[in-house]
Amino acid sequence: MKLGKIISTTSVYVLFAHSIHGQSPVSPNIILILADDLGYADVGFNGCKDIPTPHIDRIAEQGVIFSNGYVSYCVCGPSRAGLITGRYQDRFGFSRNPLFAPNDAGMGLPLSEETIADALKQAGYKSAALGKWHLGAHESLHPVNRGFDDFFGFLGGGHHYFPELWVLNDHYEAKSEYDSYKTRLLRNHERVEEKEYLTDALSREAVSYIEKYKNEPFFIYLAYNAPHEPLQATEKYLSRFGHMEEGKRKTYAAMVSSVDDGVGMVLDKLEELGLSENTLVIFLSDNGGPEQANASDNGILRGGKSDLFEGGIRVPFAMCWPAKIPAGMIFHHPVISLDIFATAIAQSQKPVNTKNRLDGVNLLPYLTGAKKGQPHDYLFWRKFDAKDYALRTGYEKLVIRKGSTRMFFDLDRDVSEQNDLSNQSNARTNKLFKAFQKWESGLVGPAFLGLMEDKEYNALHPERFRRPSGE
Ligand code: CA
């Protein structure tokens, strides 16, 4: 009886799959899960011992761990601009963390740029952006005007997690940058009454949009702001860490655990709907952990958020797609967040023509074995204001601080960047610097004032939060 039941369920599934899709291949669904300020060593698949992340680890177990996975910048805003466009963000002036400026169309991702959602729309995808946007708060820069069909979340660079702290009805009640953390959440353009802890609300919405879009290819950009400051967690998650001493690490652990639960809800929903096999799920952090600020842990990597040492730019990064990517892989060649856009559009069964030249590459052939070697000859980073730069090629890494101090590291022998070899490798250092200069010649300067210029911006824009006339 039991066996009969299994067979009939399977037959129904096969029939169902064929009736919907016939024999032709189907574009995969894509779920891009971004954590915020999560340390390299704070997930189980990178060796974390004190914070269990069984669900995030499922992505790694069912697919590939990128042990040398990078982002294109070491803080939130520019990293997201790179991720969402598949291009080095300094090609279009996104060199700073944008300010929350709802009346300023120039503060955020320029309209010259195409988002991954814009591109996937060409192939018939439905898409939702959930959580932290941070690519502009002006109407023209709102997610639904940047290729997404739906949005649920907040437009600024961070947010409080507890609903009782969302005391501002709208942005025009804000008086400062950090007031944006207190605004009520948005569903598209409507302020909503939300009762759940923020991370839980975002996970709930992700599951809901999977359900809503299940009959067509979909793209969900699930951008948690956890475990970015402020450190706020509910008892549900704190109680899992009762053995830890009171303090930042405990609250941080609880916040990571809430993200992990959310990832579990997403993966479970895919399984329930029979969508796991043909869904590409990607998990990464937007930059390295700021260890002092949120008690994150970048392990043996040097530095953290806002550094171009490995701790600032090398992040937890994993991807699964059971239909195509072999399970249990570890990919050691350098890859970068910019590759996600190129990888996603290359899997579409309908052609996608991108407006701008991408810097990322399609990783799939490297994961299936169709292509050998490394996806990138060089990766580059630039912090414009600090004049800090970096380059990686193979295991070699060039770091330049304050425009002049050059350091050269062999990451194969010295992943912690402790032994500067620039004196012994002068010729090689010079050669890499020339490669950096060539790349930099294709970049532009900052397009807007950033978080560090908050006062200057306010002086220039006294009506920064004013309610637009007619609203
Ligand atoms: Ca961040």
CATH superfamily of the largest domain: Alkaline Phosphatase, subunit A
Low-confidence stretches: 1-23
Task: Indicate the proportion of strand residues.
Answer: 15-25%
Decide which structural class fits the backbone.
alpha/beta
Helix content: 25-40%
DSSP E strands, number:
16
Termini gap = 64 Å
Bound molecules: calcium ion
Q: How many distinct domains?
A: 2
Strand order of the largest sheet: 7-6-5-4-8-1-9-10-2-11
Instruction: Estimate the global geometry from the Cα principal axes.
Output: globular
Q: Which CATH first-tier class of the largest domain would you pick?
A: Alpha Beta
CATH topology of the largest domain: Alkaline Phosphatase, subunit A
CATH architecture of the largest domain: 3-Layer(aba) Sandwich
What does this structure look like?
This protein is α/β, with parallel strands linked by helices and 471 residues long. It folds into two domains: 10-368, Alkaline Phosphatase, subunit A, CATH 3.40.720; 385-444, Arylsulfatase, C-terminal domain, CATH 3.30.1120. It has 13 helices and 16 strands. It has a ten-stranded mixed β-sheet. It has a four-stranded antiparallel β-sheet with strand order 13-14-15-16, covered by helices on one side. A hairpin with a 2-residue loop joins strand 6 (186-187) and strand 7. Helix 2 crosses helix 7 (248-272) and helix 5 (198-213) packs parallel to helix 7 (248-272). The model is unreliable at 1-23 (pLDDT under 50). Bound molecules: calcium ion. Calcium ion is lined by residues 36-37, 76, 228, 286-287. Residues 36-37, 76, 228, 286-287 line the site of calcium ion (CA).
